[in-house]
Amino acid sequence: MPRIPSAALAAVGLVGGYGVARWTKKRPLGGVVLAGAGAVAAREWNARAGAPTAAALTGAYVAGFAGSHPLAKKVGAWPSVLGVAGAVALASWAFADRRS
């Protein structure tokens, strides 16, 4: 069975978490999506690139989530979420997916 690229998991977690929270108006539900996809992505990062890289990419995932909030005040919610999701996905591809 082919593996899902961890870059896709990270992007789906960030975008999907925001989308679910926005459309359901239930932020905790969006947090479940964000955390679930992040946990699966972290497991893939660890398997593909090792624990130090997985820790760094997990930090980037969390920083992207946190950083999207102040960025949204400057550029808007969706551009902010899409921008940080793209940045985390690019880092994920560069440090984990490209190697496998």
Structure description:
The protein has 100 residues and is mostly helical. 88% of the residues lie in helices and 0% in strands. It is built from 4 helices and no strands. The chain has helices at residues 6-24, 27-49, 51-75, 77-97. The protein is globular. The mean pLDDT is 96.
Which ranges are low-confidence, i.e. pLDDT below 50, for 5 or more consecutive residues? none
N-to-C span = 15 Å
Helices, by number, come to 4
Which class best fits the helix and strand makeup?
mainly alpha
Main sheet makeup: none
Give a brief outline of the structure.
With 100 residues, the protein is an all-alpha fold. It has helices at residues 6-24, 27-49, 51-75, 77-97.
Tags for this model:
100 residues; mainly alpha; 4 helices; 0% strand
